[in-house]
User: What shape does this take?
Amino acid sequence: MSAPGALLTGRRQSVPGSGAGLRSQVLLALVCGGYATGAGLGWGSPEVALVMGDFGLAAAALVAAVSCCLYARARESRFRPAWLLFGVSSAMAACGNAVWGWYEVVLDLPVPSPSFADFFFLCFGPPAIVGLLVLAKRPVTRAGWVCLALDSWLIGGSLLTLSWSLALAHTAQFEGKSVAHAALLLAYPLLDIALVSMVLALHFRRSNANRTAINTAIAALALTVLCDALFTSPLLREDYRSGQLLDAGWFAGSLLLAYAPWGARRAGQWGEGAPHGRSTRNPSSRPIGGSLAALTPYLAAAVCTLGILYNVIEGRRPDRVVVLTGCTVVLALVVRQGIMLLDNISLTQELAQKENHFRSLVQGSSDVIMIAAPTGILRYVSPAASGVYGREAEELIGSELASLIHSEDLGRVVHEVRRFLAAPPAEEPTTRIECRFKSGTGEWLNVESTVNRHQGGLIFNSRDVTERVRLQAQLQHNAEHDPLTDLPNRALFTARVRQALGGRRHGDPGTAVLFIDLDGFKAVNDTIGHQAGDELLIQAARRLQDSVRAGDTAARLGGDEFAALILGEGARDQAARECQVLEIADRLRLTISQPYRIGNNEVRVAASIGVAFAEPGVTPTDLMRNADLAMYRAKAAGKDRVELYAPQMQADVVRKTELATRLRTALHDGEFALLHQPVVSLATGRIASVAAQARWRSAQGILFTPAEFLRVADAGDTPESARTSELGRWLLEEAVEQAAERHRAGHEVPVSVRLTARRLVDRSIPLGSIEALLTRHGLPSGALMIELADSDPRISFDELERRLVSLRRLGVRIALDGFGSGYAAINALRRLPIDVLKLDRGLVEGVVESARLHKITSGLLRIAGDLGMQSVADGVDVPEQVLALRAMGCTHGQGMAFSGPLDEYRLRRALVRGEFPVPGGAAQPVLAGGVLPVRHVGANGGDALSLPPLRSNSETPVPPT
Assistant: This one.
């Protein structure tokens, strides 16, 4: 099969239960064949022939009656009355044969005419006729019922005309016999004619839901009627004796009727037995059945004409019954054809309306609708193809679908189509395929198609999604790359490291990670401004990208920190490989340390580089941590150098652990104090909330700021960091307790507490404890806000989302801290229940000097406004920043431009005052080469002179020891 034909190839499915149905049919054939053989041989003796001819037929009819009644009782469906009527009909036949046997076998007398046996036999037909009516597909209109009645009369009248001409006219002559005897002789053929009429009329109207059962029942009744017709004929009636071969037909008809419901059910071909609700009927039989149904009136008229011609040929005058019946048949044919003509006219008009409606829908749709034949050739293409694909519909019709799909996508499309065709239609009615489609200009368009089955082929409802794919790729690129340098960010770099350690280079000790930090970068920001610092970062990133190999990865991790992944080459000489990587690192150091031309200034910075090699069993996190430790060792050792990671560098981690232990002791000794910094509305100057901040004054009199001890408290996964989580619990409890006291004093100002995502995920602060804390101190739930610090790449976003949703149910508001710098900002907006966006200090500090940061900050604030969120600028230290942020739509600010962190006494005085003056005059120019000093309230309540906090892209400090 060609590629287009293979595109639409599916697999066949077997019908369950076919083996059991075949065994039942074979058993039925053997029993009927055995009876026919015995009847043909005369059963060996006249006595046995009488018993089998009478009571054998009674037993078979009784089996049919019991079988139909049991099935009707066991099955609840709309066909239940039909099988009950068939059971009654068979019971009448059983009683008739039993009475017949009573006379011939028990009494040894000839059966009188008429007798009770005739009564039971005559009662066989009416229930069977009504049962066929119940089984048939019921007409839905009055015209349908009229056509059903006319079809039945056309068949019955035609058969009556023919049979009257052949035999019934002679039977109707009394010739001295009684009226009852003549009526009995006429009743049998007339009932048979009525039954045959219903069988033929309903054969083409049987329901699709029980086709096999109806076919079997019709066959059984047809066989019975045929034997009745042979029995009532003058040629056989005079010589008939019980036990002859004619009885085999009645016997087979009864057993076939008994088999009909159960055999069809075992075959699994109708009603509830059909697999997946699909009909197993052969589609090729539909045209034949429809043609015979359409020819039924004409065949009936032909039979009627034959009956009249027979009388003419015999030279007899046509009987009045024949003439009257023929006239009614012709009249019924005319009426039926008139009804059919009116129906055809109505259907033609309705079809034309639907066709016009469908054509307008298809031609007006912006989607392209294509119909593909089973061979894969396009048979129809809607006019929308010219606007979507740039190709006319006539040009596409007749072409192979496979030739229009990109070769890289063809295999995936063929696999999906085969899987779809093999699936049950009831379970999977449609599928969706996305691939590249060749346009008229030769370009490849990204096309999304909804696929449906259509007469062995497929219907494709396609639309151009090229722009969406490009936008998704751009968003994905933005989420994985640094917005300033366009280098991979920390998340993508971590994924590349994980891929290098787990791919085909698994276990390669030559793979190395380099952490690079720019020495002296802070001085660049302080002397010539943040815009120059941004330009320096861009040039440094370009040099780094040009210096690594094509397969290696250069990344910016944040601020002035860069990293490089050097893939191993499978070399066995580890010493040579280390020497090579160290040479690469030293070359990078020299390249980055070359002078930078920024505007009219020549700027110099150095580079401290830490190198860590992959070891067996090392994780990406450990490898990056080792490189980070080596980089800090290079900075501590004098900067502008390369350091290779060594296990003894863990001493720094030990010192951090010691500091964490001291933190825990300080908590128990009460050395921590809680300060609050007001969050002010930039529009009115009113205090909207307060941010809780901790200060640690050790026993030695050293005052640690949050930047120093929280770095230890938020350290990695170590037992010491678990113990320092007590600091987070203390901070939360103390902030809630003091906020509740202020609420009771009339200062109903919300308090915000900064917690890292790691603390929330590891549940160091259980959800129940927060609810109990709010209840114990009587603080309204809306008065607490959790500031979510930037999360770690190792943290599960799913767990973080569930945790924050649970907090929101308690009424706790959520703020995203450091927005604009974290790797997970986009994911956080998309998935986490955020109420407030808190801009990163680095953006706020450079919003006046750096045009690039101004644009970035403006875009982030616009995102917050579009999402209906409040925005808070952290680190608003100078009036110029207040004016710039307010102009960009920022709603709140926090920083030295309003107030520094305050103790409880000064905080309440500020709350009584209620607002701070908002700068509204012209901004004072910033002196080149420096920053504006800001006077603020010190931690001990006095005034102190300090500088604004470190910027987000400032030089990385050496951790405290």
